[in-house]
Description:
single chain; mainly alpha; 3 helices
Amino acid sequence: MKIDEVRAMTADQLAESLLNLKKEQFNLRFQAATGQVEKTHRVNEIRKDIARIKTVLRAKKAA
């Protein structure tokens, strides 16, 4: 997910995608613990996407 896409979303859409990413991150953690992760790079991508969304949400709330 690119920053331009995140900035174009509304606050409700950001909250929804944040929830979905957190669920996916939770599932990937369990897969990593059991050694079943196929796409190991996805863990880092999700972490960075969550940070992007949180940053934009804070900026929108401050404005």
